[in-house]
Write a structure and sequence with these properties.
Residues 1-57, 66-123 form the CBS domain. This is CBS domain-containing protein. It comes from Methylophilus flavus. With 131 residues, the protein is of the alpha+beta class. It folds into two domains: 1-70, CBS-domain (Roll), CATH 3.10.580; 71-131, CBS-domain. It is 38% helix and 20% strand. The chain has five helices and five strands; from the N terminus they run αββαβαββαα. The protein has helices at 14-24, 43-51, 79-89, 109-115, 117-128; strands at residues 28-33, 36-42, 73-74, 93-97, 103-108. The radius of gyration is 15 Å and the shape is globular.
């Protein structure tokens, strides 16, 4: 798990989010409001859902683009749980919350591969299936 997580505010602009992603080489950005995870913004969200629809990067706020509820896991769950969630939700990264619902990290498919290659392989197979 990566414990130091860079987050965005729902009121940040898409340009600001894209600049943060570029500066830190991120493909996904957790969106938090008062410390609570409310969604995840991906580089694909910006390019496909915003740019392709002609939305202004300077005038569109992240909260205008967030759609579905964020998928996450808790810090006391297992690597197998993470792999199962990734497979079920077809995601390569999961925010990790503590018992107070505060974001404490992100676990990625690469993290799984370093810890449990069988779980990572199973997750990748599930992620790669058509939705």
């Amino acid at each position: 798990m990566t414990p130091e997580v860079i987050v965005a505010s729902p009121n940040d602009t898409l340009r600001s989010a894209a600049q943060t992603m570029a500066e830190h080489d991120l493909g996904i950005l957790p969106v938090c409001d008062n410390g609570e995870l409310i969604g995840m913004l991906s580089d694909r969200d910006i390019t496909i859902r915003a740019v392709a629809r002609g939305l202004s990067l300077d005038n569109t706020r992240i909260n205008q683009l967030l759609g579905t509820e964020a998928r996450y896991m808790y810090e006391d769950q297992t690597v197998e749980d993470a792999a199962s969630y990734m497979k079920r939700f077809q995601v390569r990264r999961l925010p990790v919350l503590n018992s107070e619902y505060q974001l404490v990290g992100i676990i990625s498919l690469a993290d799984l591969a370093l810890t449990d290659s069988l779980a990572a392989t199973d997750a990748l197979i599930g992620i790669s299936q058509p939705a």
